[in-house]
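Sample intake sheet
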Amino acid sequence: MLRILLVPLLAAMFAIWAGLASLTAAGAEPVFPLGLRIGLEPAGDLKLSARLPGFEDADRKVAVTILDLPVRAYDELERSAFAQNQAGLSDLKRESFPFASGVGILVSGSVQQNGVTLHRWFLLASGAGGNVQDLAALINVEVPAAALSVYSDAVIRKALASVTFRAAPLQEQLGLLPFKFNELAGFRVMQAIPAGGVILTDGPSDDISQQPYMIVSIGRGAPDERDDRGKFARDLLASAPLRDLSVTLAEPMRIAGLPGFEIRAQATGPDGAPVSLVQWVRFGSGGFLRIVGVGRKQDWDMLFTRFRAVRDGIDLR
């Protein structure tokens, strides 16, 4: 199976997937798993899966797994597709493959696993423009030999030829997050991050180097001890891709009734302009909620009030 390296999104610089959707008649039009930008016309008895991002025929043990990744993952995926060792795949074939939203690379073959012959297809593609740009798609199909009478090579190829991209379904993606916003304070949702985060910004474009933005994310592995939380918060902030980072305040505080830690700092943005930022980390049982706000230094007083309003309006689901 292809090895996949998930690399961070550009906008998810501070370290920041798919269930159910209504299904029309199979083969009538592409079906998109909830929150994903990639859909297809499911073949045979494939249904949307509650177990993985994609489709399943549980009775025949057939699975179509769809990975919706940032475009920078494409190079690594392509290297994997053309690697000599394909994890034991026999009858290996690589080919250019046209589909509804473009042209990709199709890798196919079979493998023996626990005494069962599995036939596999991997379609690799990327967004080609329009509303779908930051996209690397990997669709992995696995069919046991016993199911080939229903899911033949021709049937799978027809399904893969129907692969279609759409613009990011923000409302669907927001509904999948483990938290919700009760107050956006004038910010708009720019992007939802599959790992469990969201980027907010204030301005006409999605260029966050030129306008204020917030990144809200949730993570695991927070320290239980009070004395370790300050260092944990500082280590999180140290990953910020900002130059000349200088902390001006760092102190524990209560956030929504839970232990938290606030850090304020000054830095130089990607374009060389001075910026101010705040990071709040709200600690819970074995996890944390992280809120980062960044904006131009001259607008800081107004922005800080808005950042704080967003922070105080976040509830965990």
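Comment: The chain has five helices and 18 strands. The radius of gyration is 22 Å.
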